[in-house]
Amino acid sequence: MASLRTDGVTVVFGGNRALDEAGFEAEAGRITGLIGPNGAGKSTLFDVVSGLRRPQSGTVTLDGHDITRATPAQRARRGMARTFQRLELFGRLTVRDNLLVAAELGARGRNSARTADGILQRIGLTADADTAADALPTGAARLLEVGRALAGRPRVLLLDEPAAGQDADETRRFAALLRDVAAEGCAVVLVEHDMGLVMSVCDQVYVLDLGRIVACGPPADIQQDQTVLAAYLGEA
Ligand SMILES: Nc1ncnc2c1ncn2[C@@H]1O[C@H](COP(=O)(O)OP(=O)(O)OP(=O)(O)O)[C@@H](O)[C@H]1O
């Protein structure tokens, strides 16, 4: 069972401390939310966790192994998958081929076509299987990106604003999907501005403000926290 952890992660861009000793933990079987105002450092923290950015200080550990210096590919081999705020699909490939590519990479002896078809059904895009990814509306494209991450059977799933552009029905289906994925033992980390979604699916929520974790706890506590209300929710 995977457990992901960051300790004391600091990233400085010029004079701007994008992350200031940020620490959080995500456990297998749980959905961990990471919220905060624009520019709080959420995507930068995902970049550090997924290996796209080396922090000036601090550590990232997965199942107790220090992976701070591991490449993104090494992290992926350890079971980490990520989606991006800006969609990163293979636009000219069909929906199904986007899933097949990922399924092939994570095949480990499994039948990739069956994996891809199972995920198509899971994300509700079977009817769009032969559509080019570029032609999908944003909400569906986001589901496809999550599906592609799932095709590699991740143990840790990092989702950067997956619900942006989804309609209410897509978000409802998406919430159910996330709960299922966590119930299968995956550690899900959710960066999201849709507070309804965050508060309804997360087991634990961390709040970032100006690069610092200013609060952490179950959604019910976070919604009452005065620091959080001042930093973020009060702003909405
Ligand atoms: N490549 C970069 N070069 C310089 N500054 C950067 C870079 N990437 C991020 N920043 C700055 O770091 C801070 C954190 O940005 P980040 O994108 O991580 O925030 P965020 O919480 O993900 O915001 P949003 O909710 O708007 O996506 C911001 O002040 C941002 O301007």
What does this structure look like?
With 236 residues, the protein is an alpha/beta fold. Helices cover 36% and strands 26% of the residues. It has 9 helices and 10 strands. It has helices at residues 42-50, 72-77, 95-105, 112-122, 138-151, 168-183, 195-201, 219-222, 226-231; strands spanning 3-13, 16-27, 31-35, 57-62, 65-66, 80-82, 156-160, 187-191, 204-209, 212-217. The strands form 2 sheets. The protein has a 6-stranded mixed beta sheet, sandwiched between helices. It has a 4-stranded antiparallel beta sheet with strand order 2-1-4-5, covered by helices on one side. α3 (95-105) runs parallel beside α5 and α4 (112-122) runs antiparallel to α5. The model has no long low-confidence stretch (mean pLDDT 91). Adenosine-5'-triphosphate is lined by residues 13, 16, 18, 36, 38-44, 85.
Q: In percent, how helical is the residue content? A: 25-40%
The string of secondary-structure elements, in order, is: EEEHEEHEHHHEHEHEEHH
Low-confidence stretches: none
Per DSSP, the total helix count is 9
- The overall pLDDT, averaged over residues, is 91
* Sequence of strands across the biggest β-sheet: 6-7-8-3-9-10
Strand content of the residues, in percent?
Answer: 25-35%
How large, in whole angstroms, is the Cα Rg? 17 Å
Distance between the termini: 36 Å
Bound molecules: adenosine-5'-triphosphate
What spatial form do the alpha-carbon principal axes imply?
globular
- Could you tell me the number of beta strands? 10
Strand count, sense and closure of the main sheet?
6 strands, mixed
Q: Structural class of the secondary structure composition?
A: alpha/beta
Protein name: ABC transporter ATP-binding protein
Keywords: ATP-binding, Nucleotide-binding, Transport
GO molecular function: ATP binding
Organism: Streptomyces endophyticus
